[in-house]
Amino acid sequence: MITYDFLQKYWWFVMSLLGGLLVFLMFVQGGQSMLNSLSKKEDEKKLLINALGRKWEYTFTTLVTFGGAFFASFPLFYSTSFGGAYWAWMILLFCFVLQAISYEYQSKPGNIFGPKTYRAFLFLNGVLGTFLLGVVVSSFFTGSEFTVGKGNIAGLGASGFTISQWQNPLHGLELLADVRNLSLGLAVLFLARTMASLFFVNRLDHEVLEARSRKFTLYNGVPFVVFFLVFLIWTLVAEGYAVNPETKVIYMEKMKYLHNFIEMPIVLVLFVLGVLSVLYGIFNTVFNKGFKKGVWFAGAGAIVTVTMLLLVAGYNNTAYYPSSVDLQSSLTLQNSSSSYFTLSAMAVVSLLVPFVIAYIFYAWRALEKKKLSLDDLESDGHAY
Question: What total of structural domains would you count in the chain?
């Protein structure tokens, strides 16, 4: 019989994998943040926008799936984070709404705002969307200012008192005051820009843009590595939020996340392989002018790396959403998940996920049998 503990860990793995996919697909946002710097002419901008426009729905759909799956599997996190740090989440989601509007309306007849306005919206989504996602994910390791009324979970709390309460009036914006949060936010931003550069090298039939994209791979890859190393090293040597498996008491443990890697060797090996794959994709694209498949190596590596990093945040008796003001309010896989029935029912549905991924891969390949050129835009009835 499948145990409750297994289902909780299974769904944390699913959430971690979705998080990894989302970070990879953020190359769309990364490309949007470089529209003006990477392109010099109007036809070059249109080519970049249309290359990204064929992929933006993947990112948006994955974000919605990520939020919906979190709500179903770990509802207490959903209510605590989305209901408490709502300014950070609302700004992030608003950026994605601007993205959807911009792609659909920038080239519509009678557009009174002009394409430059919508491209500014795309730039805003590209910068803030990636940066804020990294900041929020970093709080899985640094902690947030909230309390959870455990009596209210059992229905014993005072009338009108919510289960979770955010203890900072900035409601999520205070996360920007933590340097470690900023470092991961900047790492995700520059990773998205690096992935976009690799994507353009692989996708475009345009010698000038391809040459510039290789340079931008270096320009963005270096700061990505720097900021990611700052976050990673700082996190590995810092105290972490551990859970006593017997008493369920949460306490601070020195180098907790380093211990998690050591005590879960498979996770450690996959994490290292993921990092090396990202570096290989970047390095080979920059220094080998005939290499155009860097996005696939770096993309797969990013998915694996982020997935393993999130597993370290939740597995091995660790509080995945810690409270920095009240340790015992921290959320763990055990105290924040849905019921056994809900998790088991969803687990059956999740068996269809591989088929969905296979279909996405098939559709992606079918739409990209040839590289995108300026001539293709003229013959395309749905050019952005």
Answer: 1
Q: SS3 for 380?
A: coil
Confidence of residue 164 (pLDDT cuts 50, 70, 90): confident
In a domain, 242, yes or no: yes
Question: What distance in Å separates the CA atoms of residue 193 and residue 223, rounded to the nearest whole number?
Answer: 11
CA distances from 118 to 42, 113, 285 (A): 14, 8, 31
Q: Is residue 288 part of a domain?
A: yes
Q: Is residue 384 situated within a structural domain?
A: no
d(CA 158, CA 155): 9
The yes-or-no verdict on residue 184 having pLDDT over 90 is yes
Domain extent at residue 56: 4-379
pLDDT in tens, 284-300: 999 999 999 999 999 99
Average pLDDT of the chain, as a whole number = 89
Q: Give the other-Cβ count within 10 Å of 337's Cβ.
A: 24
- In single-letter form, the type of residue at position 210 comes to E
Q: For the segment 106-130, what is each residue's pLDDT rounded down to a tens digit?
A: 777 767 677 788 889 999 999 999 9
pLDDT at 158 (0 to 100): 40
Contact assessment for residue 294 and residue 208, using Cβ atoms and an 8 Å cutoff: no
| CB proximity list for 243: less than 8 A, separation 6 or greater | 249, 250, 317, 318, 319, 332, 334
127: in domain: yes
Q: Which residues pair with 323 in a beta bridge?
A: 144
Angle, alpha carbons 143-189-313 (nearest 5°): 30
Q: What is the DSSP letter of 368?
A: T
* Chain centroid to CA 228: 14
8-state DSSP, 104: H
Helical residues (DSSP H) of the chain, grouped into ranges: 4-25, 27-32, 35-38, 42-53, 56-73, 75-77, 83-84, 86-105, 115-142, 150-153, 179-203, 207-237, 256-263, 265-287, 294-314, 340-350, 353-367, 374-379
